[in-house]
């Protein structure tokens, strides 16, 4: 008897050859959360625990062909975007998303965990004007908030102002990730009317490579399973907190979170 397919989630992002972030992290997260992950590769990076040694974006026609191949045949229940590299790729992906009837989680990746740039400065206007307006949820970290809006978050009290600045570009919800603040790890999710605060203890583990990709993919997995946005974010926060707690050393620098941490937890 043929088993019914699980919910399907498409990630549109770059490859991390070290396996901790990007497409690799997205697909691991989706598998861990019970959805079928599919991918559109936008760029290839030479990357390890020490940083990004090189990046090469794919042609727009390759990105478009991958997207149409998956969506037209298999279909999607949610889409997640990550590294899009350049203005032409941002605009190509935004056009494709606007014609797709599925929730979209936009992780506006600007720099890597090590501070390496992953988005051309010339692409920022395209992200603001084309990509964010098609997002169901935008998930910027504090550096990306500043990059996109000019708002600097110095403490928890600035998160509302940051969220308002992001929402002004058109996403339905903004999830402002406060992981770079001191104290507990606090995130704010809002659509401009409702507010949901998500808190977790700050964990003493430097091996956090891939947290942003993992969180956005976990939110997309929840949306694909039919959860409301606040519930999808709550589940994603719990999953990422566990993955950070289980993060492990790899290579000579910052290791990844453990996407399979639940597999080692006794049932």
UniProtKB/TrEMBL annotation:
InterPro entries: HMP/HMP-P_kinase_dom, PM/HMP-P_kinase-1, Ribokinase-like. The keyword Kinase applies. Its EC number is 2.7.1.49, 2.7.4.7. One of its GO terms (molecular function) is hydroxymethylpyrimidine kinase activity. Pathway: Cofactor biosynthesis; thiamine diphosphate biosynthesis; 4-amino-2-methyl-5-diphosphomethylpyrimidine from 5-amino-1-(5-phospho-D-ribosyl)imidazole: step 3/3. It is an enzyme of class 2 (transferase). It catalyses: 4-amino-2-methyl-5-(phosphooxymethyl)pyrimidine + ATP = 4-amino-2-methyl-5-(diphosphooxymethyl)pyrimidine + ADP; 4-amino-5-hydroxymethyl-2-methylpyrimidine + ATP = 4-amino-2-methyl-5-(phosphooxymethyl)pyrimidine + ADP + H(+). Keywords: Kinase, Thiamine biosynthesis, Transferase. Coiled coil: none annotated. Gene3D superfamilies: 3.40.1190.20. Residues 16-258 form the Pyridoxamine kinase/Phosphomethylpyrimidine kinase domain. PANTHER family: HYDROXYMETHYLPYRIMIDINE_PHOSPHOMETHYLPYRIMIDINE KINASE THI20-RELATED, PHOSPHOMETHYLPYRIMIDINE KINASE. Catalyzes the phosphorylation of hydroxymethylpyrimidine phosphate (HMP-P) to HMP-PP, and of HMP to HMP-P. This is Bifunctional hydroxymethylpyrimidine kinase/phosphomethylpyrimidine kinase. It comes from Streptomyces tamarix.
């Amino acid at each position: 008897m043929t088993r019914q397919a699980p919910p399907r989630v498409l990630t549109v992002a770059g490859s991390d050859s070290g396996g901790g972030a990007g497409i690799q992290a997205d697909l691991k997260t989706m598998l861990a959360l019970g959805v079928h992950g599919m991918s559109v590769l936008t760029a290839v990076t030479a990357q390890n625990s020490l940083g990004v040694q090189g990046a090469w974006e794919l042609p727009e026609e390759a990105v478009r062909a991958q997207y149409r191949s998956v969506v037209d045949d298999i279909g999607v229940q949610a889409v997640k975007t990550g590294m899009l590299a350049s203005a032409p790729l941002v605009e190509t992906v935004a056009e494709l998303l606007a014609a797709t009837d599925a929730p979209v989680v936009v992780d506006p990746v600007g720099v890597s965990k090590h501070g390496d740039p992953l988005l051309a400065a010339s692409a920022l206007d395209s992200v603001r004007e084309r990509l964010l307006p098609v997002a169901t949820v935008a998930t910027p970290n504090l550096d990306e908030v500043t990059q996109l809006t000019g708002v600097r978050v110095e403490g928890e009290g600035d998160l509302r102002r940051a969220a308002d600045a992001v929402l002004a570009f058109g996403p339905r919800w903004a999830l402002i990730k406060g992981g770079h603040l001191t104290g507990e790890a606090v995130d704010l999710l809002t659509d401009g009317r409702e507010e949901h605060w998500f808190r977790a203890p700050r964990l003493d583990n430097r091996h956090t490579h891939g947290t942003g990709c993992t969180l956005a993919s976990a939110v997309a997995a929840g949306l694909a399973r039919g959860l409301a946005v606040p519930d999808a974010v709550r589940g994603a926060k719990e999953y990422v907190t566990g993955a950070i707690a289980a993060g492990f050393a790899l290579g000579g620098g910052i290791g990844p979170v453990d996407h399979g941490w639940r597999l080692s937890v006794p049932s």
